[in-house]
Amino acid sequence: MASYIFRCQFCDAQPDPLTQVSLERTVVEVTFGAYVDAMPEKWLVWHGHGPYGPPRYACAEHRGDLVAYLRHHYGAIGPHPWKRPPYPTQLGRSDRAERPVSLGEGSSMPRWRKTPEPE
Ligand SMILES: [Zn+2]
């Protein structure tokens, strides 16, 4: 299995293993112009495609920078970059509970917290 290398495009941070799994899962999602949260580190994924460019990734610290970047570059193309949080943690299927981790931000809605599934 090839494994993807994800890097924050602003600081070269790399995700922890669990977040890496979340990010890998978003790679196969076929979407156009959508934000996704990758838990538990709460990275932000931008699914561009087409006129919105390649997928982009940002760590929790720089997710705001990514949003600003996208709005600057693609904001004129359509409404997708202007979407406001909360963003889904996955697209096209129901959320699967990962380990609930408090990020100390106090602003995220815990909608991805459901009954944990045994592995
Ligand atoms: Zn970063």
SSE-based structural type: alpha+beta
Helix count equals 2
N-to-C SSE series? HEEEH
Provide the domain count: 1
How is this structure best described in words?
It is a single chain. The chain is α+β, with helices and mostly antiparallel strands. It has one domain (1-92, 102-119). 19% of the residues lie in helices and 11% in strands. The protein has helices at 17-27, 63-74; strands at 34-38, 43-47, 56-58. The chain starts with 16 loop residues before the first helix and ends in a 45-residue tail after the last helix. It binds zinc ion. Zinc ion is lined by residues 8, 10-11, 13, 58-59, 61-62.
Summarize the structure.
By secondary structure, the chain is of the alpha+beta class. It has one domain (1-92, 102-119).
Structural key phrases:
19% helix, 119 residues, three-stranded antiparallel beta sheet, alpha+beta, globular, single chain, binds zinc ion
Q: Which helices and strands, and how do they pair?
A:
Layout: H1 17-27, E1 34-38, E2 43-47, E3 56-58, H2 63-74
Antiparallel strand pairs: 1-2, 2-3
Bound molecules: zinc ion (ZN).
Zinc ion (ZN) binds next to loops.
